[in-house]
Design a protein that fits this description.
alpha+beta, 14 helices, 21 strands, 5-stranded antiparallel sheet, 591 residues
Length: 591
Amino acid sequence: MAFDGITTANITKQLQETLTGGRIYKIAQPESDELLLTIKNNGTQYRLLLSADASLPLVYLTQTNKPGPMTAPGFCMLLRKHLQNARIAAVSQPGLERVIHLHLEHLNELGDLCRKKLIIEIMGKHSNIIFCDDKDMIIDSIKHISGIVSSVREVLPGRSYFLPLTQEKADPLLYAEKDGDTAPLTWEDFKIHMLSKPMPLYKALYSSFTGLSPIIAQEICCRAGVDADLPAKALAETAGEPLKPVWEVFSAMMTQVAAGSFSPVIIYDGRTPLEFAALPLTLYGDKESRSFDSISEVLEHYYAERETVTRIRQKSVDLRRIVQTALERNVKKYDLQLRQMKDTEKRDTYKIYGELLNTYGYNVAPGAKTLEAVNYYNGELVVIPLDTTLTPQENAKKYFDKYGKMKRTYEALSELTVQVKEEISHLESVLAALDIAMQEEDLVQIREELVESGYIRRRGGGKKIKITSKPFHYVSSDGFHIYVGKNNLQNDELTFKFATGGDWWFHAKQMPGSHVILKTEGAEVPDRAFEEAARLAAYYSRGREQDKVEIDYIQKKHVKKPAGAKPGFVVYYTNYSMTIDTDISELSELS
């Protein structure tokens, strides 16, 4: 989700309510393009993070402190000189631009009141933090932009500050209803904007008005019940006025933004944060939506969780490559073995040829190329090809030799294909474990499994690494504890060391996934607890993207592990089954 103008309006409103009248107590520059301001207001201390990072520009209030470098950068020293103990007079946003102005007041060396601005531009790679005087003259900025870098605007000390308008977009807040007065933009004006752009409707929306991200534009179309990918012109040519609901939703949303009525949310795809917004998103109706008290909480949670997921993905790249390479090799081997198995299907035919030649070979005329004989096993007539250079007995021996070779090949492949199939299943289960790994400790245990399986050589002189990763721990709606293995070693531990005979064991049917243990403590388990444990087994399986997953469940005492089996591999012969969805949003996870 982009940090759009509506999100900026939400954070501006929060800063207005929280920081106006406060004084800047500390100024730090933890990164080259980042500031952390400590502000005291009404007896409370706040930390305001301002980041002009090209890939992740952000503004939000946080409780987390970040240490600065031993020697403060020049921009930080300049701000300390001017703004130490400065008062925040106001916080504003020009239109619905991704820009925030901190209006500051401080006393100079002579005790005179001076006014300054700290301007935060949240514009992707063009993001910046700019310090200006009361006449909008740039004093300094965290990034210097010369005319060589940008032909649109220089950001250098001594230059006049202005907001570059590189795109002809209208300010949607000018058209919102305020204090009962309707602004100039009419339905006809809105329709002209939409029809002037030969592109999908949602693109026409965010291309026409400032502050709208693609997601918000799609949300407007979704609320209006209109296909966002249809061109506006095609809609306009449809009977009735299908664009009118889009205008009504757009106008209502802008009125809501102008009134400062926000409801910040994060949309989750399972455990992964998918999108955030300052307004509810109905676009993701099938996903979990979690509401927050403030947009700062949303931003901090969203990017912290995304960073965790991204970091784990990056750290698991090497393991994933090792597993994927081994899996591809075994799949090719398995396919080859199956083709070789298919080639041995005629082995019994050759055996019969040999037997019939020994029985009826005396009827073969010299130089004959075939022998017709009745197969005494089924009474059918068989035509046996002959090598004219060999006697009937030699032809029979040749067929018996072929039969013997194919039989030995079949018997060897029958064992090998089972082994390779088990290896493929094991590697697929390791990939599934990598998909649900949430912490570095989880990767350590997966690496240990690969070491024990011979895919990775052990480091550190052969010493085993201490494992600190723990299974997921949930509590059902009825108070029953449910445990979910994160990988095969945890699956074995849960099933055969932690669970007791009367506990219930769950697993996705015929696909890689976690072992799930429902602890009973000797109590009778209600149907809802069974269903919730099954949902966990469905969610933590390779089938989590499916609408429904078939789950096998059985008491733990009936689950066995064959001698020498791969980690996580079990057998059971009688079980119950249910088909269930993968929605675990109602379940509480314990730390």
